[in-house]
Amino acid sequence: MTKKAFTIWFTIISTILNILFTALIIGILAISATLILTKVIGTKNGQIFIVVWMMCFLAGLVLGMFLFGRISSAIITKYNLASKLDPKIIGKHLPNGNVNKYAQKEEEEKKIKTVMPDSVKEDDDPWENQ
Predict the structure, then answer these.
(1) What pTM value is reported for the model?
(2) Which residues contact residue 60 at a Cβ distance below 8 angstroms, ignoring those fewer than 6 apart?
(3) CA geometry: angle at 17 spanning 51 and 96, to 5°?
(4) Average pLDDT taken over every residue of the chain
(5) pLDDT at residue 101 greater than cutoff 80
(6) CA of 37: how far to CAs of 24, 34, 43, 112, in Å?
(7) 30 in Cβ contact with 63 (< 8 Å)
(8) Which residues of 66-81 are buried (b: 16+ CB within 10 A; e: fewer)?
(9) Least packed by Cβ within 10 Å: which of 37, 84, 93, 117?
(10) Cα dist from 130 to 56, 121, 122, whole Å
């Protein structure tokens, strides 16, 4: 499988998992907030529920993005997927220090060492310094 195909599959699967993971977090936050409002506080005002559910939705989105970024970077590092993915995708999932390391590793592998013939190299001219 090429890097491009592997990157496309990784992006599709991670997007689906990110949506499911975020929906799960939002659901857990909303259910726990509803239980706290009804059982602990004992409120019956519908407007309070709407405001709290909106806050749970926003908090779930932010928390889902943050946690999914951490989880995906841990998976890429653990299973050494950085060499199989496009460097642009690696930059989104791994910390900045690791992006340069993987990019430099690939560039070093691609470099071809050029050898200059002796006739082109500069010589020390004994008459130059006098």
Answers:
(1) 0.67
(2) 22, 25, 26, 29, 30
(3) 95
(4) 83
(5) no
(6) 20, 5, 6, 67
(7) no
(8) eebeeebbeebeeeeb
(9) 117
(10) 82, 22, 18
